[in-house]
Amino acid sequence: METPRTSEGAKGRKGPASPGSAWEVLRVATGLGLTSFGGPIAHLGYFREEYVKKRKWLDEKTYADLVALCQFLPGPASSQVGIAIGLLRAGLPGAVASWFGFTIPSVLALLGFAWWIHGADIGEAGWLHGLMVVAVAVVAQAVWGMAKALAPDRPRGTLALLAAGAALAWPTAGTQVAIIIAAGLFGWGFLPKKELEEPVSIAIPIQRRTAIGCWVLLVILLLGLPFVAQITHSYWAALAEGFFRTGSLVFGGGHVVLPLLESVVVPPGWVTSETFLAGYGAAQAIPGPLFTFASYLGAIAAGLPGALLATLSIFLPSFLLVTGTLPFWSQIRRYPAFRAAFAGVNAAVVGILLAALYDPVFTKAIQGPLDFALALIAFGLLMIWKLPPWVVVIVTAVGGVLLSGI
């Protein structure tokens, strides 16, 4: 049998010195899943504190290299870092345990919200409208932060604005994919190609043929699921295809999942715009990855089976991407053109999210001057007062109730 290889050509310190158990990984990851509020950047801080400083499962340089890898890949960066750490600690069972522990608490919380909102007679509830309004502030904050980080210069800022215009002019899932591809090609050809420092050597407990198999499976599913959904006209195949495609194409940050998922579930009528935005607002108030918003949407669309299918479909690409890329990461990082291509993609997704801020987030949530004033208050609480998102969600929900009585 082929011996697992360490990334070739890299210098520096290696990964975990001693293996652990999947049960150990599950226990620690579950604790993080119950307490990690604040979004992907905060999650990475929690991970560093727990895995690097407290438990010393890996060193600072290895952790930084894993974060760089997961920022490079599409998908939820914090979940992918957790999957990678579980993989290094306890192999593929550790990767699954890490994902399960970190993800399931927020899945259960959003399933409970979906069950309650689906069965409750909410009508024109003010708190529900408040959740829609807080989505405006949250997405505006995400656009602001991502624009400063991912589109800070003239070429990338222009690319972001062009992407926003295209996404608004042709609001389809196909347009979003085309924008991402075109932006990657533009970055590859025209953006500056920066040399990167030599990555550290990481001991990878999987074989390279397993990694190649993951890439093959990713391509088969990404190309095959749309074909299966089209020829079978199966509701379940269409649901799986939409969430799998979203999980494969989210670049730049967790909030980019918003426009991609909206294009999957709202146009077919599986979820209304109002219920979609209310769930997105509620997702800000719970710990764990934002991608579990898919669990809520699946539950609204098709009950518990839909929630399970949506959750597995949107996270499966992360497993395939991390497992398929980690053994080759040292070689990939040697090609600056790849970095330039992804710089173009990241600038474009800022534009896609900017388009989503207008439609559907703003157009559905803001129905008058008072709604806009409430959104401004929420934005100020996030940006100026630096309050945690869950606090702002509660404040805005209460504000929605007060406005409903005016």
From TrEMBL:
The chain crosses the membrane at residues 25-46, 66-90, 96-116, 128-147, 167-191, 212-231, 243-265, 277-301, 307-328, 340-358, 370-403. It is a multi-pass membrane protein. InterPro entries: Chr_Tranpt_l_chain, Chromate_transpt. It is found in: Cell membrane. Keywords: Cell membrane, Membrane, Transmembrane, Transmembrane helix. Residues 1-20 are annotated as: Disordered. It holds the Pfam family Chromate_transp. Belongs to the chromate ion transporter (CHR) (TC 2.A.51) family. This is Chromate efflux transporter. It comes from Salinithrix halophila.
